[in-house]
Amino acid sequence: MAVQRRGNVKTADTSSIEKKIKRGIAQRQASSYRGYAAVLVALVGTCSLLIWLWSIWTSDITQTLVSRGEVLTEPRVFMIQCSEDYLKYKHFPGCTPTKCGRAVLDTVVSTDESRTLKRLAERGLALGGSDGGASILDLHSGALSMGKKFVNIYRYYSNEIRDIFTEDDFELYRAVRGRIQRVIAETFGLDFNKLYLTKPTFFSRMNSTSAKTTHDEYWHPHIDKVTYGSFDYTSLLYLTDYGVDFGGGRFIFMDPNSNRTVEPRS
Ligand SMILES: *[C@@H]1O[C@H](CO)[C@@H](O)[C@H](O)[C@H]1NC(C)=O
Ligand SMILES: *[C@@H]1O[C@H](CO)[C@@H](O)[C@H](O)[C@H]1NC(C)=O
């Protein structure tokens, strides 16, 4: 821009005095434009440096919130702003989130309990299984993945069910479910008795077989109130270990500008 101005001045058909005056003005303008340009370049430079650093920070460096080596005996919590999604629903005091966040804890179940639950899930899932990479077993509704659809395990295997799951299995399941509920209530300042288990609640098993139906597409981000309108809190209990039982597949808390990963352990 500054260069163009000077060119205009040079080609102007005017008297010598006018030329001198104009040259003076033009030079002042040129230098102020140059100064302006330098500031702009410096600003653009700073911005692109920031953008560059930012892109490195956000894409190449994914923050590990909890690594597998860590054993958290107290919840590791980080709070976030509550989504406006909650405003579209009726407010239930003691249950509807007033503070929102994520919490990770390792000591809700013992190693033995975790193994027992895993064997329970394996026995159930062995009766069916999805053609794609994700199978589920929902002990509440009885839903079990089978090929490209679901069957009701309690109807489909009504005679065998007593041999597959024992009363002890169900008791452990109920106890663990209650403990998770308590941790959620304590972490988010809620009334334990005002929290209710909603559906779906299920065991899931995933591997790298490609998806055959949309039910196998486990990788979509989960958002309470969007994925399932009934969810106010979502809990996941891992029964396998990252780096031992599976690779890849870390758990990610996704935000617009950052991803925080958890390396799950059973
Ligand atoms: C976070 O992870 C998701 C899934 O891998 C990816 O699509 C997204 O670009 C990541 N976001 C950032 C900010 O790195
Ligand atoms: C995934 O699990 C299913 C059911 O157990 C099995 O048939 C399939 O071979 C597995 N795929 C991989 C890639 O391990």
TrEMBL record:
Taxonomy, superkingdom: Eukaryota
Q: Could you tell me the keywords of this UniProt record?
A: Membrane, Transmembrane, Transmembrane helix
**Entry's Gene Ontology cellular component terms:** membrane
Instruction: State which residue ranges cross the membrane.
Output: 36-57
InterPro entries reported in the protein's UniProt record? OGFOD3
Task: Indicate what this protein is called per its UniProt record.
Answer: 2-oxoglutarate and iron-dependent oxygenase domain-containing protein 3
